[in-house]
Amino acid sequence: MEMTQTRQLPVAQQTAWEALNDTALLKQCIPGCESIEPDGDNAYLVALTAAVGPVKARFKGRMALQDIQAPDSYTIQFDGQGGVAGFGKGTAAVTLAPEGDATVLTYTVNAQVGGKIAQIGSRLVDAAARKMADTFFDRFTAAVSGSGEQGDEPGTDDNVAKDGAAAGEGSAPDEQNGETKRKRSWTAWISKS
What we know:
Layout: E1 2-9, H1 13-20, H2 23-29, E2 33-38, E3 43-52, E4 55-69, E5 73-81, E6 87-99, E7 102-114, H3 116-119, H4 122-145, E8 170-173, E9 180-183, H5 186-192
Antiparallel strand pairs: 1-7, 2-3, 3-4, 4-5, 5-6, 6-7, 8-9
């Protein structure tokens, strides 16, 4: 699988670089992320829960930053295991370029998947990867710009299951307009998918 995308971030390049290296912020923005723990210089152990089509699993893996050219670029090498669901491994080249007061982030991911995930077909795998990337960047952009509108917490993203049948949802009043908003946890969405 190969995926390339460009996103504009409404912050200066140095701010974007610092945010991309803030593990607490990344944990908050990565869909289904449970933990990101240091594992040596520029390396991290990651645990997350994800669903690709009918295959749902908890993945554990390692990600290492290489070819670091602060604040312009780095390469992420990743390798994750999801038990019987399969595995994923590959690289992601990330570059940042200033554009006025904003920053243009471009990434190219080259990945391989195996196991049950590979059996469901490349179209579903690609669609799930793009959806995860879009959710991550929506959350990341909101977090770095300070807007807080794009689902900073798990479960507030509009892409979460819309039929209201997800387990673990609750109601919370929306203080801005007096309506009741439903909040769903990512684990409830993932287990329902």
